[in-house]
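Sat 14:20. Reprocessing the chain from the morning session after the first attempt stalled halfway. Input below, unchanged.
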Amino acid sequence: MAQNTRSLIEDLETRLSAGEISSGALVEAALTAAGTQDVAFTRIYAEAARADAAVVDTRHACGLGRSGALAGIPITIKDNMDVAGEPTAAGSSVLANGAPSAAADAFVVRRLREAGAIILGKTAMAELAMSSVGLIAGTASLPNPLDHERVPGGSSCGAVVSVAMGAVPAALGTDTGGSVQIPAALCGLVGFKATAAQISCEGVVPLSRHLDSIGTIATSVRCCRIVHEVLARKPRIHSPDAALRPIRGLRLAVPQNYVLDDLEPPVAAGFERALRLLSEQGAILQEINLRELDRIPDVYQGGGFSMAEIYAWLRARGFLEPSHIAARAFSRIEQGGVLLASDMLDRLSLRSSLVESAEQQTRWWDAMLMPTCPILPPLISAVASNDGYNHYNMLLMRNTRVANVLDRCAVTLPVDCYGGLSIGLTLMGNPRCDDALFDIAEAVENLFEPVSSKASGRHGYKTVR
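Finished this time. Tokens:
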């Protein structure tokens, strides 16, 4: 079994405090790494990052100590998050060219700056956060770092690449139907989606005010937790050397309906191996049928209320122009324009009832387990056609959108690999139980040993048996 270790962020904090490295050196290394895959970024704040790092290093040289929980550590933010003085593009040319400059930083950007983090850059994303595949319209395709012939997942595709390439230990993303969970799972990293109410989305271009949430992609659960505690204005709860929650006695529900349908054989095998290892360590696994899961597709009928929300948001700002939005995105947005108000209210009412009934059904369990994605990352060539794109776009988000619809927190862990590709395991917490889920996820993560290839810069995971 792997041993509890410090996270990369904690290692960097220790080395910065001891004077073994400088924030300036971290930033230069990050900028060099970012330059090797600049398609992952829409903006790189090189000079600002150097200036911010110099302030951190000067404080250290004067013996003033660290100025915040993330002082001197580079972090990236998604392209849909406001930075004062510049337009927020959200992966869309119509917003990049027509949106007014932001008057202030987004809430999450302010929180990072207050914690002393160095904002390295804005990361590329699928247009308007509407693709779970992750390809970026109008630019070169952004490949999966584990296999350049395959998609990275989206919509936070630039965020995941910024971590996988080693530029930053953590990246901020947003998650409306899996936009943090999917790329993390497909690229061999950890992704955490917070309960929506935990962190304000002020200053973030919305896709759905009812489903949007903030998330983090990082190299470990502990890294995600540290960033989350900064964003949620929480004190750091555990020291690096704190004992992990025991696996023995954990009550974990394993839904048998919906989320296990049509799994690719390698994903099914990896999921079964993960369950077996958890059981061997004393976790109590209970197979359940959660009928609320079978109703989730009904929430998305006719595009669901999220398409009506983005349609109305774009129309109110004069951006609802088909010639400026990729056809694949616009065809979905159009559905929101014809959704009847009564139908939208029905969808919202259904969602509310599913949240409440699922909470009653699962309150006895510490978390639920499921494969993050039912398939391995598709080949880029497989999503070239509209039919292929639509098929894989919906399939990739099938499981991840459960947490969004049921208004829960979720974390995906890389627990196995197949042919160099990552297989993710989702742990979905009970409503508003983000801290408890982190405790569980850190313990479960400790059963799996990360494997990285320094020669290729790729990240993968293997099960410790």
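The first helix runs from residue 8 to 18.
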